Amino acid sequence: MNLNYAVIKLVCCAWMLVTCVSNAWSQDEEPAVYYLNINQTSHSVHEIKGNIIALQYNDSYGQWKELPLTIYNWKREKIAQLNLSKSFGLNNFVINLFELNDAWDLNKVYTLVITNERNHKLETLIKLMPKPKLGPEVNIVINPIQFKCDALSPKLMDFYGEIKGGKAPYSTQWFVLNNQRDDFLYQPRVEVIPSAGKTMVVSVDKSPDYYVILYVTDACGNKEEKTVHIVCEDERKKINTLFIEPIDKDKIYKAVEWKH
User: Fold this and answer.
1) Which of 74, 97, 100, 147 is a Cys-bridge partner for 80, taking CB atoms 3.0 to 4.6 Å apart?
2) Are residues 90 and 171 in the same domain?
3) Which of 72, 104, 128 is where one domain is finished?
4) Residue 254 within a domain
């Protein structure tokens, strides 16, 4: 009975490792190849999720040794031009877009234009898409328990995180920093969440302004963070703003070093 349990546990762990490695390859080491037939003009926009395109061209003439290819941006400005060596019959060309130009804009339409021996221009439209997000999605939920901005009133607030996506389990770290973001109001808290869902509740009993930051790392090493800035407006006895904004990670690291 115990032996069977050990075997099952080992298999599960191995599956998780393989899944993480596969995700890393698909994002960095082996980008997806997008195949395009460029023998005719197409008005459809092809959404490219990697940087490698494979062009298929069937040469019916065999008069030229090279096929001219020009790429224009959405302003019809020429950004790349090359001559593809070809022969009569079926030709395949694999092109790394990043080697042609290092300033591609995502979600913009580019036009690939080839000119054949009959001086016909064939156009293909492409659009580079953002890489799919592999890591977790993180949100901070705010629950004012007893809170007023006047000096004598309580300042108790609860925070908890909501995590979905990525690969469980998740390592979470909570930071509560002062308004300058250079000192802890509370010591950082670390927790491991076995599955997607809600984190533990963090209670803060401090006067604004301050920042609450949640860092999440999934089992594959993908990282995500959320920041909430708690603000009181001086002239009104209420919470003025609760909003999420990016935070400079160096500020947190300096605070950690200062505390050690």
Assistant:
1) 100
2) no
3) 128
4) yes
Residues 65, 44 share a domain = yes
For residue 173, what are the contacts with CB-CB under 8 A and spacing of at least 6?
A: 188, 189, 190, 214, 215, 216
> pLDDT value at position 30?
56
The pTM of this model reads 0.50
Average pLDDT by stretches of 10, the chain with 260 residues: 33 38 42 87 88 93 94 94 94 93 90 92 92 84 82 84 93 91 86 92 89 93 91 55 42 37
Give bridge partners of residue 198 from the DSSP assignment: 162
Q: Which long-range contacts (CB under 8 A, 24 or more apart) does 141-145 make?
A: 142/228, 142/242, 144/239, 145/203
| Distance (Å, whole) CA 101 – CA 78 | 11
Give the position of tokens 């509560």: 176
**Tokens 């469980």 label which residue?**
168
Instruction: List b or e across 196-233, with b for residues whose CB sees 16 or more CB atoms inside 10 angstroms.
Output: beebeebebeeebebbbbbbbbbbbebebbbbbbbebe
Domain count, the chain: 2
Rounded Cα gap, residues 172 and 224, in angstroms:
10
25 within a domain of the structure (yes/no):
no
**pLDDT digits 0-9 by tens, 40-64:** 887 899 999 888 999 999 999 999 9
pLDDT in tens, 89-113: 999 999 999 998 888 999 999 999 9
Half-sphere exposure for 170 (CA within 13 Å, toward CB): 29
Domain range for 174: 136-259
Domain boundary among 91, 109, 128: 128
> For residue 59, is it within any domain?
yes
